[in-house]
Amino acid sequence: MSGEIVYFEVPGNNVEATREFWGTLFGWTFTESNFPGYSMIHGPSPMGGTPHGDSGQHPRVYFGVDDIAAATARVRELGGTAAEPVTIPAGAFANCADDQGVEFSLFEAAPSQ
């Protein structure tokens, strides 16, 4: 597992207000993704996104892993929680929390073709 931050999400109940704030603050641009209700954030590295209507209070970080199944099992062994992985075209991710309730996500990239 590399543990590098490979993606992030900024929540926002009001997508226009979210775009205005973060776009003005950092100069980011936003485009609709091919996933309904989701915008991609362009400008930062790594790239990010914003789920429309998300009432979360904190950005979510995604840490890269080589094997999502092994990584989620390890989170559970260490006393954390890990949802079952969700497969998307870019790979697979799982939302998790450490043993103190701090939320994060794991991401395994799809194999290059």
From TrEMBL:
Q: In what residue span(s) does the VOC domain sit?
A: 4-109
Q: Identify one Pfam family in the record.
A: Glyoxalase_6
Protein name, as recorded = VOC domain-containing protein
Q: What's the source species for this entry? A: Lipingzhangella halophila
Output the lineage of the source organism. Bacteria, Bacillati, Actinomycetota, Actinomycetes, Streptosporangiales
